[in-house]
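In response to reviewer comment 3 from the previous cycle, which asked for concrete evidence that the modeling workflow produces usable outputs, we include below a single protein chain processed end to end. The sequence was submitted unchanged, and the resulting C-alpha coordinates are shown without manual editing.
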Amino acid sequence: MRTYLFGTGIVGVIVNGVALLRGLRDREPFTWRTALAWLSWGIALVLAVGAIVDVRRATRGIPIAEDSPVAGKEAKLSKGHVPR
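The workflow returned the following C-alpha coordinates.
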Protein backbone atom coordinates (compact mmCIF):
# COMPACT_ATOMS: atom_id res chain seq x y z
CA MET A 1 0.00 0.00 0.00
CA ARG A 2 2.91 2.33 0.73
CA THR A 3 4.01 2.02 -2.89
CA TYR A 4 0.71 3.43 -4.10
CA LEU A 5 0.36 6.25 -1.58
CA PHE A 6 3.82 7.67 -2.17
CA GLY A 7 3.70 7.51 -5.96
CA THR A 8 4.53 10.69 -7.83
CA GLY A 9 0.99 11.10 -9.15
CA ILE A 10 -0.63 11.09 -5.73
CA VAL A 11 2.06 13.31 -4.20
CA GLY A 12 1.62 15.83 -7.02
CA VAL A 13 -2.15 15.86 -6.61
CA ILE A 14 -1.83 16.44 -2.86
CA VAL A 15 0.65 19.30 -3.31
CA ASN A 16 -1.55 20.97 -5.93
CA GLY A 17 -4.62 20.51 -3.76
CA VAL A 18 -2.89 22.21 -0.82
CA ALA A 19 -1.91 25.11 -3.08
CA LEU A 20 -5.50 25.48 -4.29
CA LEU A 21 -6.82 25.39 -0.73
CA ARG A 22 -4.36 28.11 0.30
CA GLY A 23 -5.68 30.22 -2.56
CA LEU A 24 -9.19 29.90 -1.15
CA ARG A 25 -8.03 31.09 2.28
CA ASP A 26 -6.76 34.38 0.87
CA ARG A 27 -10.33 35.54 0.25
CA GLU A 28 -9.72 35.93 -3.46
CA PRO A 29 -12.83 36.03 -5.65
CA PHE A 30 -13.81 32.75 -7.30
CA THR A 31 -13.15 33.31 -11.01
CA TRP A 32 -13.26 31.12 -14.09
CA ARG A 33 -9.51 30.55 -13.73
CA THR A 34 -10.03 29.20 -10.24
CA ALA A 35 -12.78 26.91 -11.54
CA LEU A 36 -10.46 25.62 -14.27
CA ALA A 37 -7.71 25.02 -11.71
CA TRP A 38 -10.08 22.94 -9.56
CA LEU A 39 -11.32 21.05 -12.63
CA SER A 40 -7.73 20.31 -13.62
CA TRP A 41 -6.97 19.11 -10.10
CA GLY A 42 -9.98 16.78 -10.18
CA ILE A 43 -8.92 15.30 -13.51
CA ALA A 44 -5.36 14.77 -12.21
CA LEU A 45 -6.76 13.02 -9.12
CA VAL A 46 -8.88 10.66 -11.21
CA LEU A 47 -5.92 9.84 -13.49
CA ALA A 48 -3.61 9.16 -10.52
CA VAL A 49 -6.14 6.85 -8.88
CA GLY A 50 -6.76 5.10 -12.22
CA ALA A 51 -3.04 4.47 -12.63
CA ILE A 52 -2.90 2.98 -9.14
CA VAL A 53 -5.81 0.68 -9.94
CA ASP A 54 -4.18 -0.42 -13.20
CA VAL A 55 -0.86 -1.22 -11.52
CA ARG A 56 -2.62 -3.16 -8.78
CA ARG A 57 -4.61 -5.17 -11.34
CA ALA A 58 -1.51 -5.86 -13.42
CA THR A 59 0.42 -7.14 -10.40
CA ARG A 60 -2.42 -9.53 -9.61
CA GLY A 61 -2.63 -10.82 -13.17
CA ILE A 62 -6.00 -9.25 -13.93
CA PRO A 63 -6.31 -7.96 -17.52
CA ILE A 64 -6.16 -4.19 -17.97
CA ALA A 65 -7.21 -1.88 -20.78
CA GLU A 66 -4.88 -1.40 -23.74
CA ASP A 67 -4.82 2.39 -23.25
CA SER A 68 -3.36 2.05 -19.76
CA PRO A 69 0.17 3.35 -19.15
CA VAL A 70 1.16 -0.08 -17.81
CA ALA A 71 -0.31 -2.03 -20.73
CA GLY A 72 2.25 -4.46 -22.06
CA LYS A 73 4.16 -4.53 -18.77
CA GLU A 74 1.84 -6.96 -16.98
CA ALA A 75 4.33 -9.84 -17.03
CA LYS A 76 7.03 -7.68 -15.48
CA LEU A 77 4.70 -6.33 -12.78
CA SER A 78 3.18 -9.69 -11.87
CA LYS A 79 6.57 -11.39 -11.53
CA GLY A 80 6.71 -13.17 -8.20
CA HIS A 81 3.03 -12.74 -7.42
CA VAL A 82 1.19 -15.88 -6.42
CA PRO A 83 -2.54 -15.69 -7.27
CA ARG A 84 -4.94 -16.54 -4.47
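The two ends are 18 Å apart (CA to CA). We consider this sufficient to address the reviewer's concern, and the full set will be provided in the supplementary archive.
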